[in-house]
Design brief:
By secondary structure, the protein is of the alpha/beta class. The chain contains twelve helices and ten strands.
């Protein structure tokens, strides 16, 4: 790997080759939801927790100070009001991200969607541009579309992860398959780091922490969790709990204690 990518990846991954990323690109797809009204405020809160990197859109990156956290500029978007909200289109360029001082860029691909071909074309094009600039590429790649019966099935998740790596992504973000044994199949068949998405906001924090802990046991490289962090009643503590799991090998019980919660 060329030196530019290596240097930038060190701003996202710690020495243990793991990372805690909080994506906050939701303003494009679903608007200014709870937790993302004051963007500088939530970023400051996450920084206090020791977040490793954040994902934001170009317009937010222009005005928000991300401190010592890695800056990942998201290149994809579509709104929930679109007739086909699975059809993510490119709304920002690698050039733009370079000018903004990004440490990486991210592209969203829905495998199995009607416009999968266009999204894959975008991923391939962006991957080539990233190589030219020494810019790491995070592929947010999910099995999601009419032909996908189970978005968490190991065969389709493994295919999605491998597809992103095959087309040049340096980091894969995808769905967790539900247990460590099956997720190990995803990780072992992908030659780049695999991190898990958080999915919809869940009822209990313990569910999130257990999922993260199990993914790490399977060889996962960390998380990219949004709503279950920025909509938590204390995002700073939530980041600290995730960081304890991911970087210090804490147990779920120990992470719950950081949040002031019991078993």
């Amino acid at each position: 790997m060329e030196s530019g990518k290596k240097r930038r990846l060190k701003r996202i991954f710690r020495d243990d080759n793991r990372t805690v990323i909080v994506p906050m690109d939701h303003g494009v797809s679903i608007g200014p939801v709870m937790g993302l009204v004051n963007m500088q405020g939530i970023v400051d809160t996450l920084l206090l927790g020791g977040v490793d990197a954040v994902v934001i859109n170009r317009g937010i990156a222009k005005s928000v100070d991300t401190g010592n956290a890695g800056l990942i500029v998201h290149l994809s978007g579509i709104t929930k009001h679109c007739p086909d909200p699975n059809n993510k289109v490119q709304i920002c360029s690698v050039d733009d991200a370079v000018r903004l001082g990004a440490d990486a860029v991210s592209v969203h691909i829905n495998v199995g969607a009607k416009q999968e071909d266009r999204m894959l074309s975008t991923l391939g094009k962006v991957a080539c541009e990233c190589d030219d600039y020494g810019m790491p590429l995070l592929a947010m790649i999910y099995p999601r579309g009419p032909s996908i019966k189970n978005q968490h099935a190991v065969d389709v998740v493994a295919h999605a992860a491998r597809l992103g790596a095959e087309l040049g992504a340096d980091i894969i973000k995808t769905n967790y398959t539900g247990d460590a044994e099956s997720f190990k199949e995803v990780v072992s068949s992908c030659h780049v780091p695999v991190i898990i998405a958080g999915g919809p906001k869940v009822e209990t924090v313990r569910e999130v922490l257990q999922m993260v802990s199990d993914s790490l046991k399977a060889g996962g490289a960390g998380v990219s969790i949004g709503r279950n962090v920025f909509q938590h009643e204390n995002p700073t503590k939530m980041v600290k709990a995730l960081s304890a799991l991911i970087h210090r090998g804490a147990s779920v019980s120990e992470a719950l204690k950081i949040l002031g919660e019991s078993e």
